[in-house]
Amino acid sequence: MPIIKAALLGLGTVGAGVYEVIRNQQEQLKELVGAEVQVVAVLIQDTDKEREVEKDVLVTNNIQEILAIPDLDVIFESIVGAEPTNRYLDEAIEYGCHIITANKEMFAKHGEALLEKALENDVQIGFEATVAAGVPVIRTIQQQLQLNKIGRVQALLNGTSNFILTEMRKKQLPFAKVLKTAQSLGFAEADPTNDVEGIDAFYKIMILSQLIYGEQPEWNTVELKGIASVSEDKIYHSDGRYKHIAELEKVGDRIQATVRPIIVDEQHPLYSVEGVDNAVVLETSLAGAIMIQGPGAGSKPTASAMLEDFIHIFQDSKAAVLS
Ligand SMILES: NC(=O)c1ccc[n+]([C@@H]2O[C@H](COP(=O)([O-])OP(=O)(O)OC[C@H]3O[C@@H](n4cnc5c(N)ncnc54)[C@H](OP(=O)(O)O)[C@@H]3O)[C@@H](O)[C@H]2O)c1
């Protein structure tokens, strides 16, 4: 049977999930892509940490060792931050690898250039996991709504913020206490800045803007507010519910985007989306308003999005891989 050689950049929450799914669902993957999927290398930062990978997997902190492997077919990238990731992926595309990424900061900043480069080099980039993890937002837009014009997008794109606002309101608890609970449950990072300041949701709505309108608004024109500054009293006593909503709309030639906490009433489609869930409402020209909801973070949901991208790419290029 042919072999697809894969490398993982990052072996944290997401990377370990991808590794586990590839190992546990090897038989299904073989059926779907007609080849055995072998993880041959892993890029990490700390070479002293114990890694739960097979002995024959190269574990390195040097990207050049990975790009020196002959016939590498695909890279699953789940490291943190825009650089040096962007540089690594740029080189990997030149090498001729397909890329599947979960890294929203990197993709919001460099996705357009990487996609262009991928086209020139005849490889594909899967980025479903960058927005709402396992919730299939990207592919729904790319494949299921091709004839539709998407007007407005309204979305809950940060599970941590939604969890905190939900818990504060339901249990009338202060922000700091609920944040601690979120951290202890693994819903928030040790440094929660990107989540509670709205930066994570901002990157995701920029990726959606690029996908839907082919461009992003000037970043400094986007109103960006996180949940940390909302008064506890308002969250406890408002008529309606505070939701941290990222919104996107093209008005004339101008793309307008906002990321901010607002109060919504019972009629609003995002009113009942509670806890860590993400949800995206797409107002479409033919199909009407469509809402997609589900877990927007976590090891398995994110790995799910990345492996679905993988299947899509390799089913597409099955003939090429098998030849
Ligand atoms: N966690 C989620 O639910 C989720 C969901 C969707 C998207 N994402 C995105 O996926 C990415 C990974 O998230 P995560 O939660 O898996 O992070 P994580 O648990 O902190 O893991 C990050 C991994 O990347 C490695 N790494 C970081 N910087 C590196 C560098 N410069 N060179 C080589 N390796 C490097 C780390 O190495 P060490 O192991 O040596 O520290 C670690 O293995 C992020 O971009 C995040 O935004 C995460």
Describe the structure.
NADP(+) binds at residues 10-15. By secondary structure, this protein is α/β, with parallel strands linked by helices. The protein has 2 domains: 3-133 and 300-322, NAD(P)-binding Rossmann-like Domain (Rossmann fold, 3-Layer(aba) Sandwich); 138-295, 2-Layer Sandwich (Dihydrodipicolinate Reductase, domain 2), CATH 3.30.360. Helices cover 41% and strands 23% of the residues. It has helices spanning 13-24, 26-33, 63-67, 85-95, 104-120, 137-144, 159-171, 175-184, 193-196, 199-213, 232-237, 299-316, 318-322; strands spanning 3-9, 36-43, 58-60, 74-77, 98-101, 125-126, 150-156, 223-224, 241-251, 254-264, 277-284, 288-295. The protein has a 6-stranded parallel beta sheet with strand order 3-2-1-4-5-6, sandwiched between helices. Strands 8-10-9-7-11-12 form a 6-stranded mixed beta sheet, covered by helices on one side. Helix 4 packs parallel to helix 5 (104-120), helix 5 (104-120) runs parallel beside helix 10 and helix 7 (159-171) crosses helix 8 (175-184).
State the CATH architecture of the largest domain. 2-Layer Sandwich
Main-sheet strand order equals 3-2-1-4-5-6
Radius of gyration: 20 Å
CATH classification class of the largest domain? Alpha Beta
Which of globular, elongated, flat, extended, rod-shaped describes the shape? Answer: globular
Low-confidence spans = 319-323
Q: Secondary-structure element order, as H and E?
A: EHHEEHEHEHEHEHHHHEHEEEEHH
Mean pLDDT: 95
Superfamily at the CATH H level of the largest domain? Answer: Dihydrodipicolinate Reductase, domain 2
